[in-house]
Amino acid sequence: MLFVDWLFLDMNSYFASAEQHLQPALRGRPVAVVPTKTDRTCCIAVSYEARPYGIKTGTNAGEARRRCPGLHLVVGQHEDYVRIHQQIIAAVETVLPVTKVCSIDEMVCQLSPQHREVVRAAELAHQVKQAIYDQVGRSLRCSVGLATNRFLAKVASNMQKPDGLTVITREELPRRLYSLELTDFPGIARNMQRRLASKGIRTTRQLCSLSKHQMVDAWQSVLGEQWWHQLRGDEYADRATQRRTLGHSHVLPPKLRNDAGVRGVFVRLLHKAGARLRRIDYWAARLVIRLSYADGWPKWKTTVYLGRSQDTPTLLKAFERAWQTRPVGGKPLKPSITLIDLTPAASTTPSLFVEDRRALAAAQAMDEANLQFGANKVYFASMHEARNSAPLRIAFTNIPDVSSEKNGPQNSTTTG
Q1: According to the model, what pLDDT value does residue 229 have?
Q2: How many other CB atoms are found less than 10 A from the CB of residue 101?
Q3: What letter would DSSP give residue 161?
Q4: Do the beta carbons of residue 39 and residue 65 sit within 8 Å?
């Protein structure tokens, strides 16, 4: 009998499929999700109906419309995508527990011993698909991969799209992988592909033939040993990682491309970053502030030292000090802030100064009020003009908390 241990689920063209789910008139039609409705932006997701026209993620929106005159451009509604994501998780868990949510459109489930025989695992995969169709919506198709480790299960999920089911058993390895390009493996992008090519490795067959020592040499790290085991179907435990940075950025709409507008958006980004920092219970040592311009002005970048902080008042004071040093002039386009040198609360000694403790207590009280009464119900007055700017965005591996990040209604309370 053949066995597998992991089920990996990948939602197909998730943002575009979510829009077709939300808007029945778009079903069966070519759809591209964009950040804003302008020909200058690019597509961030494309439905399968649009792909025969050569439209893909990253295609310029104007070019996409020229290639497909019937293309429907839809501005992404990220709050909706998070809610549907949560509904999908709930549907999957009516069949089996989700072991890990990998991204907004991916999750992995470890199979219990009674479900690891290939036929039984495949039945379970079909049940998962059916649960999503029945409980969330039939426009939301997914591909499922089954394998003896998480890595190969993810590889398998990409081998048949859309709506596929692929099984890779240990007995088939490594020959089952030979038809894949090196870039079909998660973790091998163009830079890594070039590095492997410099060592004479240009095909998957060549990669799989490497010894453990050669694999370590190819990666120039112990990751090579992990790859050696994974390609042979072995489960390799994830190494413990620690978050090092946290940041936000936003492209300004035309009406905010001025000093007052960009300053307000910076404050909004700092509010979001501070709330996230407290939610994950990390402390930051430094704040990096960047600003790019639309008219050829050189970028502004500065770093402010925070000591160890996780409260919004301290972040705002640090920003105000830096703001006074900015170059005057230019048309601001994209502000961004990054908190770096993060440490978990368990290994951080909070400030002993009363003023710092009060600032943190005030920030935590705001968090509690916003959680209870709605996001952005309470905020610092300096954010008022930009409270609806820098809306929620989804990163591939960071699924935001809609309840804490969604822009709130107008009847909010400000504090000085």
Answers
A1: 95
A2: 16
A3: T
A4: yes
Q: What is the pLDDT of residues 229-249, one digit of tens each?
A: 999 999 877 665 567 889 999
Q: Which helix (H) or strand (E) holds 9?
A: strand 6-11
Structure tokens at 379: 């905020």
Q: Could you read off the pLDDT of 57-109 as tens digits, one per residue? A: 999 999 999 999 999 999 988 889 989 999 999 999 999 999 999 888 999 99
With beta carbons less than 8 A apart as the criterion, state whether 170 and 196 touch: no
pLDDT for 64: 96
Element (H, E) at 231: helix 223-231
Mean pLDDT estimate for the chain: 86
Helix 312-323 crosses helix 354-373 at what angle (to 10 degrees)? 110
Report the alpha-carbon distance of residue 171 to residue 150 in Å, rounded. Answer: 16
* pTM (two decimals): 0.69
Strand order in the sheet with 31-34: 45-46, 31-34, 72-75
DSSP element (H, E) containing 156: helix 150-157
Strand partners of residue 167:
146
Cα radius of gyration rounded to whole Å, the chain: 24
Q: Which residues contact 270 (CB under 8 A, 6 or more apart)?
A: 312, 315, 316, 319, 337
Report the share of the chain in percent with pLDDT over 70: 82
Contact 300, 326 (CB under 8 A): yes
Q: What angle do CA 161, 166, 172 make, to 5 degrees?
A: 135
CA distances from 141 to 111, 199, 347 (A): 21, 39, 43
Residue type, 318: A
Say which residues have a Cβ less than 8 Å from residue 368's Cβ, sequence separation at least 6: none
The pLDDT value given to residue 195: 93
Tokens of 332: 């601001």
pLDDT at 180: 97
What are the structure tokens assigned to 340, written together?
A: 């770096």
